[in-house]
Amino acid sequence: MAQLEENPDALGGAARDELDQLESDEYLERYRAKAVHASALKDAAFDYAARDGGMGEALSKYMPDAYKRVARIIGYTLLLGGDADNWHGLTVVLTARLTPQERAAMAWAVLRSLTPDQVVDVAQTVLPKGSSAPIAPLFNHMDEAAFWADMAEPEELDAYCLASFNRMAPARQAAFLGYVQERVAA
To answer: Is the distance from CB of 51 to CB of 43 less than 8 angstroms?
Structure first.
């Protein structure tokens, strides 16, 4: 949030909207309550550790149950290793037990531990692959094109649009431009 406060436009218009939301009274109140709660838990853990033993035991005593479950499932998943089903199970538990902000913070920390090439590899594995080329129409070409366009990535839309336009006869290109310009004016 500090980066957003220093330069709210650093991440584009969405960052400004996010900053406005984050500055809302409701968010600040929730943040303060969470900070007070976390501070009280930390103080209690330090007091317990000083009195009765190690910090690990103290943190475990005051750690929310959801965090304990997440820590256990991360350990189990790492122990069981490379099976995709194991890692999917971790995804399910993280989604159920942590907030989107907590999951994003974990993802940030993990991605920062990787090289730039490894980050790209992970992102390419996780992010949608797009919709590939349009398939043969079931009803008519326009229905199939609309269906495909709903699933296509912006780069795919641009590429197929330009390639299709370039393959049209000049008269069809002019008709297409007239149609598009008429829609923009309306």
So the answer is: no
Is residue 25 within 8 A of residue 35, CB to CB? The reply is no
Q: Is the entire prediction scored with pTM above 0.85?
A: no
- CA–CA separation, 83 vs 126, rounded Å? 16
CA separation, residue 66 to residues 30, 94, 185 (Å): 19, 9, 54
Low-confidence ranges of the chain (pLDDT < 70): 1-59, 82, 128-138, 186
Burial per residue of 125-156, b for 16 or more beta-carbon CB atoms within 10 angstroms, e otherwise: eeeeeebeebeeeeeeeeeeeebbeeebeeeb
Q: pLDDT tens digits for 55-109?
A: 566 667 777 888 888 888 888 888 887 677 778 888 888 888 899 999 999 999 9
Rounded to whole angstroms, the Cα distance separating 91 from 130 reads: 22
Spatial distance between the Cα atoms of 150 and 134, rounded to a whole number of angstroms: 11
Whole-Å CA distances, 20 to 3, 13, 64: 14, 11, 30
Listed in sequence order, the DSSP H helices in 23-83 are: 25-52, 55-62, 65-80
> Do the Cβ atoms of 65 and 37 come closer than 8 Å?
no
**Does residue 137 come out as left (phi exceeding 0), alpha (psi in the -120 to 50 range) or beta?**
beta
